Amino acid sequence: MACFETTEWPAERPVPQVSIEFDVDSAAGVTSAVEELAVAGYELLHPPRTEPWGQAVARMQSPEGAIVGISYIPIFHDEA
User: 49, 57 in Cβ contact below 8 A?
Assistant: First the structure.
């Protein structure tokens, strides 16, 4: 339950059957996407954060229960 940093999924939320992540071009792009989602009325499961392996990510849950992530994974991009 990486979204909530617990071993239990919250009982008040639908149990997800799928997780989809969209990779953006930078960590700042994650924040920008989250701001757009907030303006559109979407509720995040957690704000943008950087995971120990370097991934910047924020996640939301669709009405159908899917986990949707906006992320930036440095190793997927040419950092040279």
Answer: yes
